[in-house]
Amino acid sequence: MSQVISLALPFFGLIFLGFGSGRIAKIPRSGLAWLDFYLVYIALPALFYDLMSKTPIEELAQGGFILSTTFSTYAAFALSFAVGTIISNGDLKLATIQGLVGSYANVGYMGPGLTLAALGTAAAAPTALIFCFDVTLAFSLTPLMMALGGTEDLKLMQTIGVVAKRVFLHPFILGTIAGILAAAFHFQLPEALAQMVTFLRNSAAPTALFAIGVTVALQPMGRVPTELPILVAIKLVVHPFIAWLMLTWIGGFDPVWIKTAVLMASLPTAATTFVAAQQYDVYVSRAATAIVISTVLSVFTVTGVLALITYDLLPLTPFGR
């Protein structure tokens, strides 16, 4: 158990350090802006570039893996969306944000640091692939569903254009694509630039974890709505179970890839959900509450998944494949 604690404690310790700082320090929320900018536009894109540029290109041609993990995220969204639709009496706008609460994990800020610490560099490729397709979920389904719900004034083709722009111009996606191209053409950065990328990569995980803690500390907590325990359970328990079920049912995947997918799916709701709620002025305070609660509970659920992975208790071939 000490091995699991050694993995989980520094990880969640940085989050709690950020949380304590956010509660104690009398710094306005705007003070977080430059830290977020550094993470989103500089450090994390550098991390994804570095990881992908060192990954053999043939390892990325994993259609079955992409299909399985993407299906698990969309299935979690569909379940959460159905719960939201029932609770809200058919309000598509509310149900869409509730769908994100139950499906969109914090794969950008929390994912790389945790998977690489737990599973090593072999987790780099699956981590990046899951991130790319989960971002596509958040940035494509949200505006499309809001358009159906009557929030967006854009026509269908305009909406598709906005979605494509948001997905392909996302800094993380650009960093990933640049890394894939570098791997494909065996391009290597000059030594000085490579060293700078290494500095940025090494700073990404601790900075991101600290920022998560501050973000959670500054989130306005509202009342806990009736549906929230169900949505959080879907996110922290059902989502990783579906990912595990799909990958082991199809079979033939590297054990590290299966473990990476389950670990990524077990992460709490991303802060992007709150940003989307603010953008559309829907479910704002409850989305913030969901992020806080899921992050706190993930201390136990993610640690549990880490224990399964560390001690080889996660069944990898239950269907004999």
From TrEMBL:
The chain crosses the membrane at residues 32-52, 64-87, 116-146, 167-187, 199-218, 230-250, 256-277, 289-311. It comes from Hartmannibacter diazotrophicus. Belongs to the auxin efflux carrier (TC 2.A.69) family. It is found in: Cell membrane. This is Auxin efflux carrier. GO terms for cellular component: plasma membrane. GO terms for biological process: transmembrane transport. Pfam families: Mem_trans. Keywords: Cell membrane, Membrane, Transmembrane, Transmembrane helix, Transport. It is a multi-pass membrane protein. PANTHER family: AUXIN EFFLUX CARRIER FAMILY PROTEIN, TRANSPORTER AUXIN EFFLUX CARRIER EC FAMILY. InterPro entries: Mem_transp_PIN-like, Na+/solute_symporter_sf.
